[in-house]
Amino acid sequence: MQRLGFGPDLVTLVGVLSACSQVGSLKTGRSVHCYMLRRHVLDRVAATALMDMYSKCGVLARSREIFEKIGKKDLVCWNTMISCYGIHGKGG
């Protein structure tokens, strides 16, 4: 796709992050995160997908770092962060 001059859009990147979350592929998820940073494709939707991916891949601290960098947090951001803590048994 990229060889033909087409880059992935936000929907594609979030889909890849979701797949990484499901299979626990931290290496690929980190690569997608780096790509998003290089291309300046990082909004709240992408941030919550990254939070979910890092949490499900065992890196709760990185999920929290991303959460802290989100300017205006909406309900989805908060629910995702709560879910991240719950996955790691830190829900209450």
From TrEMBL:
Keywords: Repeat. GO terms for molecular function: RNA binding. InterPro entries: PPR_At4g14850-like_plant, PPR_rpt, TPR-like_helical_dom_sf. It holds the Pfam family PPR. PROSITE patterns: PROKAR_LIPOPROTEIN. One of its GO terms (biological process) is RNA modification. This is Putative pentatricopeptide repeat-containing protein, mitochondrial.
